[in-house]
Structures are given as structure tokens and as C-alpha cells.
Write a sequence for this structure.
């Protein structure tokens, strides 16, 4: 018999005190009422647990698990394993939801039969967020190949690379043993989603901005992962390549994947301190990933097109200067 709980909301929490009340309030006040809220306190050292306990006293749908700090992947897996809902979703503790998000994604899954539904997000930066224009409110379904193209090239409000802003059928996750890689602390969402869309072969897209992604949290795991950035990208590319090859889709998405690798190089260069370091990073990266030079650029600015032409001609000193003067002074937003 199907569970009476329609959606399990999984919230990993680590030192999220400044944001947690807003996040939990947006979940507790969802228009879809038949939900459970599974919160994993991942070794928080601030007042996060006190806030969680206060909410749990008010809302009986909330269950708190407390672990030693083990990272977001472990916390999400604990949530999946304890979930009783027909569907699950993931919410980061510094983000928040439109009050209709769960209901809209649930209805999309039920109406289309898809095991995964996705909405867009508000890129909630310090200067505010951008509202998108949608010519149609109708649901559409993206094939696995379309999803992977978007996963490797989309950025901003329509970003496919987050495990959040999506709803997943619990039986689908269990049948395919889909869990987060607990050895990863960088771009683990991307690996999880790559595997999920290959297994499901599609995603139902809900053309609405329903998830608020907070990019102002300076203590986020993504920013911490920048310390070992090149190593993290090496691990990521190896795992993604394996997923794509095992799923027999690499040839079809190769160019999008190469664009994704080029984005990684630009982000690595953005973290470099000097032109000499940038030159080294370019040489090292291209030695490891020579196919990047074969990429057909997608959705790129002119300076990035010029940069690729320079490194194709091995003008490394000049290209390093170009990066230093033009890319470093602009924010580079990771798709990871």
C-alpha cells in the first residue's frame, strides 16, 4: 500500500543558525501537508540543534537525527534511508522554498509519471534575484541526453546541477541504489544527477522558480572545496566520465562535457594568484585533458572564445595575461 506521506523533505544541517528558521518555516508552511521533514544535524557547533528542537516541538512531522560531522552526502543518504514518503526532495539549510513548491512538483510527477521533476530557482545573491519569463506554464519532459547537455552547460536560475529544486520517486532511488558518493565533498550533486537521469531517461520540467538558492553563505561547502580545487576537479571528471561511459551516452554529450571541463579550468584560473600560476595551471590542465582543445564552445563570451584560440596556438604567456586582466576581475560562478 502506498505511503500516506507524499514527500519526505531531507535537510542536512551544519552550523546553519543564521538561516535555519527561514528555511524550516518555508517547509513547514508548504501547501502540500502530507509530508515528513527529516533533519540531519551534522555535528553543528552553533545553536542549530536548539532551533531544530524548537521547530520539532511545534510540528510533529519533523524528525531530527544527530550525527558526528560527516558531510552533506552522508547526511542526505541517512535521510533517504529513513524516508517514508512516496517522493523525496533535498533542501539546503541556508535556502528556502516557495510555499507551493512541493505541491507543484508532486503534481507534475503524478500527471506525467516521471520519477524526477525539476523547477527553476532564484539565484539569491546579495543584490537580489532575477525573475525569469516563461512563455508557457505547461510541463515538458527532457530526455536523458537533453538533461545531460543542460547539466553540463546551464548556469544560474535554470541550473540543472543541483540535487535540490527537484523531486525524486523514493522507489526509483531505492531500485537503482541511487545514493550520494560519501567520499566526495565537491560537486557530489553533479555525479548523483548524472546517474539519476541516465537511469530514469528523463526529467519532468516545471517552468516556475520555486526554490531560493542562497549564494551569500560564505561558509558553504562549495567555497571550502576551493582549497583543493584541481584535485577535486580531477576526481569529479573521472567519476563523471565513468558514469557517462557506463550509461553509453558519452559520445552524444561529449562536447557539452568538454564545455564543462573548460568551465572548470576557468574557475581554477580564477583562484590563481599570479599570471605565472595561471600559466602553470593551463599547461597542467591541458596535459591531463587535451580534448578540451577540441571543444566547440557553447554560450561563451567573446573573451573566453579568444582565450581558447590563444591556448590552441600555445600562446600561453599572452593567454595568461588575458585571463589575469579579464577573467579574474569578474566573478566566475561554478556549475558544480
Amino acid at each position: 500500500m502506498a505511503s500516506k506521506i507524499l514527500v519526505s523533505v531531507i535537510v542536512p544541517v551544519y552550523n546553519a543558525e543564521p538561516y535555519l528558521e527561514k528555511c524550516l518555516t518555508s517547509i513547514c508552511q508548504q501547501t502540500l501537508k502530507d509530508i515528513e521533514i527529516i533533519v540531519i544535524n551534522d555535528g553543528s557547533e552553533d545553536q542549530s540543534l536548539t532551533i531544530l528542537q524548537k521547530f520539532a516541538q511545534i510540528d510533529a512531522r519533523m524528525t531530527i537525527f544527530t550525527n558526528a560531522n560527516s558531510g552533506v552526502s552522508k547526511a542526505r543518504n541517512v535521510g533517504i534511508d529513513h524516508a517514508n514518503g512516496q517522493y523525496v526532495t533535498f533542501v539546503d539549510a541556508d535556502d528556502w522554498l516557495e510555499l507551493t513548491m512541493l505541491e507543484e512538483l508532486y503534481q507534475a510527477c503524478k500527471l506525467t509519471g516521471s520519477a524526477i521533476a525539476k523547477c527553476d530557482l532564484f539565484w539569491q545573491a546579495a543584490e537580489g534575484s532575477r525573475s525569469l519569463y516563461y512563455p508557457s506554464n505547461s510541463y515538458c519532459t527532457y530526455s536523458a541526453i537533453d538533461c545531460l547537455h543542460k547539466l553540463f552547460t546551464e548556469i544560474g536560475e535554470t541550473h540543472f546541477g543541483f540535487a535540490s529544486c527537484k523531486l525524486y520517486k523514493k522507489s526509483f532511488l531505492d531500485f537503482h541504489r541511487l545514493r550520494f558518493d560519501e567520499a566526495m565533498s565537491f560537486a557530489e550533486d553533479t555525479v548523483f544527477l548524472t546517474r539519476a537521469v541516465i537511469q530514469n531517461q528523463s526529467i519532468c520540467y516545471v517552468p516556475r522558480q520555486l526554490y531560493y538558492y542562497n549564494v551569500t553563505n560564505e561558509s558553504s561547502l562549495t567555497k571550502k572545496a576551493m582549497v583543493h580545487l584541481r584535485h577535486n576537479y580531477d576526481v569529479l571528471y573521472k567519476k563523471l566520465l565513468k558514469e557517462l561511459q557506463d550509461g553509453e551516452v558519452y559520445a552524444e554529450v561529449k562536447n557539452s562535457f568538454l564545455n564543462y571541463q573548460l568551465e572548470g579550468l576557468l574557475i581554477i584560473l580564477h583562484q590563481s594568484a599570479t599570471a605565472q600560476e595561471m600559466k602553470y595551471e593551463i599547461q597542467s590542465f591541458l596535459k591531463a585533458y587535451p580534448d578540451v582543445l577540441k571543444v566547440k564552445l557553447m554560450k561563451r563570451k567573446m573573451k573566453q572564445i579568444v582565450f581558447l584560440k590563444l591556448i590552441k596556438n600555445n600562446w600561453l604567456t599572452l593567454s595568461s595575461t588575458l585571463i589575469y586582466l579579464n577573467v579574474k576581475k569578474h566573478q566566475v560562478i561554478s556549475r558544480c
